Amino acid sequence: MNAVLQYAVQGLAAGSFYALAALGLAIIFGVLGVVNFAHGAFYMLGAVTAAVLLDTLGLTLWWSLLAVPVLMFVFGVVVERLFVQWLLRLDPLYNFLLTFGLTLVLVELVKQKYGVSGLPYKPPGILQGRAELAGVVLPRYQLFVFLFSVAICVLVWLLMTRTRVGMIVRASTEKPELTRALGVNVGRWVTPVFGFGVALAGLAGVLAAPFRAITADMGNNFAIILFAVVVIGGLGSIVGAVVAGFLVGLVEAFGQAYAPTFAQILIFVLMALIILVRPAGLFGREEATR
Amino acid sequence: MLEVTGLRAWYGEAQALHGVNLSVGEGEVVTLVGRNGAGKTTLVRCLIGLHRQVGGTVSFLGRDITGMPAHRRARAGMGWVQDDRGIYAGLTVEENLLLPPKVSDRAWTLDRVYEAFPVLADRRKAPGTTLSGGEQQMLAIARVLRTGARLLLMDEPSEGLAPVVVARIGAIIREIKETGVSVLLIEQNVKFAATVADRHYLLSQGRIVEALDNSEFRRREVQLLEHLGI
């Protein structure tokens, strides 16, 4: 029982990274129609930035949780203004290629600067070690990651459901042309939405920093799983991204515990099964399959 | 109010509209009748600014809006009631109403919308697409009325609805006309068109082939039905 709970918390912590990043990916796809292939690289940049901030300025995790998303938002805005915006009118494939190329460039730049061995990262003392909850001993950091991510997901959900911006994001995700024809200036939201999505990927990276090896390549495998998450949840579905993120984290953790050789394959088996039963994903609308 | 002169439109190499001229006056209800593939939907998409491969001019309220993006046309007072009604599944009924920005001081308040369409008030918190087809059509119309649009472009509002609902839609269109709002109605239902409109254009193969007033339109109903192949 104890072991099962431990794997569950480990899975939910890993799922937190997927959930946050997939949330960003879903929002970007919804409003821009761009499948942001560079999302894994943005996640990696978030982790690397946190490590560099700790190393050079002595900024702890608490500060990085605040500063890195802001920096990544600015970075996302610059990327959107410099590159992405010019390709929005063309076939979505162009932005897919652009962000793929951007991934290669970012990964190589980080390799040049910080090498291929992992950067060290220690969380603040209070998050180290284990905590005993009702007789079960669990790693404090994993609990923190899970709770923090759930809080962020709830905040984003409130933003999506209770504000006018959220309404516009939902509307233009569902019917982009009609939303414009109803007088909503969707173009005005494109840049901040891209920045916001990149910031979420960066935030996932910060949370992953003490938990994963911080290397230039850490985003590559992450990106592949992330696309499985998005397919499972339903492309463009915000709730789907979060639920599928945690689900995939759990499958991964239990897979690693009980069938280590099949851990990664399990995720894609799950993806294939869900596509068979619900082609639009768990929370995708049926129109998406047309 | 709306002046369309020599409007041409293409899909790649294929020309869909060959110099369409039409006009809609203030407080006028005008229908555009034509069979499937005549270019009706293309024409609406040109007017609303979603089809960009065009020639000719479109002027609205005295301004040339030919190159204007869709959201600015809506803000200038054009309200689109899409043929599939365009109700958002991910938005509640009330959010569907509140999404488009107000564009003039003729804008209806939510209270007025709910008074005119009580069914929408009852279902305000429900997802938009849980409404019946007729209710969704009311919502689509109410949505543009709430913005204070000056011209409604209605694409086949009677399609797929029960006769009693079609009659209700007709009554709403006549009420809209009373308030001085203009309507360009795209229809295949000739009988319905004759009950609401002042004038009619017949569109065939991307050209306006006839412009008729309502009495003439009624007199030639049989011939028009034949033309439409109904």
TrEMBL record, chain A:
The chain crosses the membrane at residues 12-35, 143-160, 189-211, 223-251, 257-277. Signal peptide: none annotated. It is a multi-pass membrane protein. InterPro entries: ABC_transp_permease, BCAA_transport_permease. Its main location: membrane. Keywords: Amino-acid transport, Cell membrane, Membrane, Transmembrane, Transmembrane helix, Transport. It comes from the Bacteria. It holds the Pfam family BPD_transp_2. The keyword Glycoprotein does not apply. It is found in: Cell membrane. Belongs to the binding-protein-dependent transport system permease family. LivHM subfamily. This is Branched-chain amino acid ABC transporter permease. It comes from Actinoallomurus spadix.
Automatic annotation (TrEMBL), chain B:
GO terms for molecular function: ATP binding. Keywords: Amino-acid transport, ATP-binding, Nucleotide-binding, Transport. CDD domains: ABC_TM1139_LivF_branched. The keyword ATP-binding applies. InterPro entries: AAA+_ATPase, ABC_transporter-like_ATP-bd, ABC_transporter-like_CS, BCAA_Transport_ATP-bd_LivF, P-loop_NTPase. SMART domains: AAA (SM00382). The keyword Transport applies. It holds the Pfam family ABC_tran. It comes from the Bacteria. Residues 2-230 form the ABC transporter domain. PANTHER family: HIGH-AFFINITY BRANCHED-CHAIN AMINO ACID TRANSPORT ATP-BINDING PROTEIN LIVF. Belongs to the ABC transporter superfamily. This is ABC transporter ATP-binding protein. The lineage of its organism: Bacteria, Bacillati, Actinomycetota, Actinomycetes, Streptosporangiales.
